[in-house]
Amino acid sequence: QVQLVESGGGLVQAGGSLRLSCAASGRTFSSYVMGWFRQVLGKEREFVATISRTGGSTFYADSVKGRFTISRDNDKSTVYLQMNSLKPEDTAVYYCAVRVRGGSSYYFTEPGYDYWGQGTQVTVSS
Predict the structure, then answer these.
(1) Are 38 and 46 in contact (CB under 8 A)?
(2) Is 62 helix (H, G, I), strand (E, B) or coil?
(3) Which of 58, 106, 124, 125 could form an SS bridge with 86, CB 3.0 to 4.6 Å?
């Protein structure tokens, strides 16, 4: 089992930036596909970004493309989400997810992932 611990959430004004971190347990982080999702209370969790095992491929939801950047440091077993030009509609609980099974290099939906973090709140004020 892999444990994920997110950090870096908080309150920021519109136009500001935050960087989320997600530290993973386990010895084979470089073999995991990683992803970020977010959820607004009362709505379904939605895909934000995913990164391949080596970090060579990244994909984003259209709503965050050009503003958010996903990256990873395999030596530190950590994945990051740099969020710039934040908007009030980015307000949500952000979840880190990991896929430990083999398969494709990236996944856009929840069933593609095996373990989830506890979530970190991001609030963007207008």
Answers:
(1) yes
(2) coil
(3) 124
Of residues 98, 93, 38, 95, the one with CA closest to residue 63: 38
Separation between Cα atoms, residue 126 and residue 49, nearest integer Å? 24
45 pLDDT band, cuts 50/70/90, is: very high
| Residue 59: both structure tokens together | 């994909």
Which DSSP symbol is given to 67? T
> What is the arrangement of strands in the sheet containing 68-73, beginning at the earlier edge strand?
4-7, 18-24, 78-83, 68-73
Residue with tokens 């607004």: 40
Nearest to 83 by CA among 39, 34, 18, 22: 18
Q: 10-26, pLDDT tens digit by residue?
A: 999 999 999 999 999 97
What would the pLDDT profile of 81-118 be if each residue is shown by its tens digit? Answer: 999 999 999 999 999 999 999 898 999 999 999 999 99
Rg (CA), the chain: 13
